[in-house]
Write the structure tokens for this entry.
Amino acid sequence: MTIIDPDIPNLSVRRRINSLATVLVTIFLIGIGLLVWEPLKVWLEGEDKRDQNILDQWINHSRIGQISLGALVGNFIKAADTSFSPNTEIERIKLHRREIFDFLQELGTPVSITETAYIPLFPMVYRMALEFPSNQNLDPVVWDSGLPRNQSAIKSHVVQLPRDCKVLINYQLRAYQDRVEIENEIYRRRTTFGLALTCLTGIGLSWIGLIGWRIDLERKAKRKAREIAIMAKSHELKTELDRQTEFLASLNVVAGSYAHNLQNLLLPPASIVDQCLESSQLTESVTDKLKEVKRLLEKASDRVRQTLKALRRDPTPGTHSLVNLNQLVERTIETWKEMAMSKWLIKLNASTICTSWIHGQESHLEQSIENLILNARDAIFEKRNDLVTKAQEFSEQKSIEGRKQAVMAAMRWEGEVIVAVTISDENNSVILTVCDNGKGMNADTLERCRTAGFSTKKKKAIHQAENSGIGLGLTFVQEMTRRHMAIMDIQSSQEMGTQIAITFPKVTV
């Protein structure tokens, strides 16, 4: 019994939704990061960034008279690039260098820098070095205050000037107590941000845990419902199985009674045939026919005995002996060949090239061959019926007389069944093959054809196959194959026919 999980149809949809949700959450987090990162960075850095911006403005916009540091640097570089007499050039360069040094010294003098909405800053500048571009080959202009300094409190900052020049400043912008307060503020801000992030993470994890708990409860409820449904289905199947067992038990009694009565009814005809054979007035032809009738009656009696044995549930298997499979096939074909041609319009032929022996139960083997022949007959009848149906179809290109001729030709179409015995030296085996050119089977029928009770001819068997459709013939062959340690292979395709090959272990005589 196959139980179908009701969640399976929605599994792929849930996976798609989860994947889409993951993508959307990722995009949302990236967007939030782009919006929040820069303000958050400025907020966490606190006063340091603002102080550095003030230093940049102080260096770039400070004036001594009407001259800025950038203008002095420009004049110096211009003087260095202009050709003069050696003495004049050296003096001009020294003069401009001195002007820059004096400017840096003036800037380094204790000064208050005030920014709107903030208290005045009191920078302590320890050293300033003006560096020129590397391609100018000019020594830097350095000013040092010579003041005692605490290296742990000194900060460095680079201010960019025009013409790729830069000023490296070593400074202390605030008093020690101010710096401590700023660092404490930065620490508080980072702590606040960390706590907020931790709280949000905890809330998110709690929400995920709650959702997971609810999903787990739903799964348990669904599992409980499925278990209840399975138990109910199992109870229903058990009840149905008990009913069928009771039915089969009663059917077994009825079938046993019929088989016993049939065995008793076969005794008088056999006795009558024996009496006829004792007569001396019979021709040789009549005698041969009576012997064939006696053989068939004995076969029918043997089949009835086997049926009674099966109905009595006798676990002991039938006696196996050496069987000449070639002779068995030829004898079976001879029994059915005349009827196949005269009544079924089927060519029934045997192909037995070499003698082959196997261990088996002859009556079961013979019955299996007969079942395969009758299955092939039914398949040929189905194909002939299809040919007749197609011939009866209306076509503007066919006259009434043409359709009649086509129908007659379809009805006279002859099928063919070949029963062959071959020897495979490769795996030391004997292969019994039954091949027909009938209707053939599609993939679904080919997969289910060995199932007991399965038949495609139920309530629609045609012509001589009106007793078909029980669905036990191929099942019997499958069981016979298993008991003889053989392997059955079925190959079939629609409108091309079917080939059934049974491979038996070979016996050397």
About this structure: Residues 114-120, 463-467 have pLDDT under 50 and may be disordered.
